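name: query_chain
kind: protein
chains: 1
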Amino acid sequence: MGSRILAISDLHVDSRMNASWVEALSTSDYVDDVLILAGDVSDNPERMKRAFECLTSRFRRVIFVPGNHELWVRGQDERSSVGKFHQVLGLCKSMGVGT
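structure:
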């Protein structure tokens, strides 16, 4: 089978059920495929990182467009959504996730 381009959004891995779904994705079915991930993975950088680790190990390429949840700063150390945006971009770059 050839390569595919797949797209998904709103993973919301803050929900344990959704995080489990991401973790349960096949480690062999998508190795030639590109995933476009259109935002709302998590507002928590550590959960976002875990989701990216799962996805980058299952897909040939992951491309991410941050959503509004990634920019939330609710009670976290970030001072602004702009600062959080740069943090998210840095995380993506360090993990080989395209933006």
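note: Residues 81-95 form the longest helix (15 residues).
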